[in-house]
Amino acid sequence: xxxxxxxxxxxxxxxxxxxxxxxxxxxxxxxxxxxxxxxxxxxxxxxxxxxxxxxxxxxxxxxxxxxxxxxxxxxxxxxxxxxxxxxxxxxxxxxxxxxxxxxxxxxxxxxxxxxxxxxxxxxxxxxxxxxxxxxxxxxxxxxxxxxxxxxxxxxxxxxxxxxxxx
Length: 166
Hints:
By secondary structure, this protein is mainly α. It is about 55% helix and about 0% strand. The chain folds into 2 domains: about 15-105, DNA polymerase, domain 1 (Orthogonal Bundle); about 130-160, no CATH class. The chain is built from 7 helices and no strands.
């Protein structure tokens, strides 16, 4: 899959350049629009792996893929013992491509849309919410008899109501 669009050097497109740009398949257009080099390389590899797994002869056969193909690939990836987050990324790459194809009216539906993904194992930054007793102790910490205490209690109540974390 060629992901590079030819750079245009003149101030206007020639007829040949216009025709060449019009002939670029949507999947190559999608790849070219991924700005982050690492994301583009990973997604490109993921899509190639899916094409190989599904036995597609070309990217043009992506239109023939159905949800059972994607489910089989997900199960295959899990059977290989890949990390959940890797499987999630691979499914996200495929889903992103199909979303783009649907937006371009090249496909009617995204076969990845309703496929359940394994839970993310990335717990970085994840913190449990405060318990009821902890929230009550926090809310009662500022003195109730002072103006600043009332202000602090009001601010804490708003933050607690909107899901402040530890």
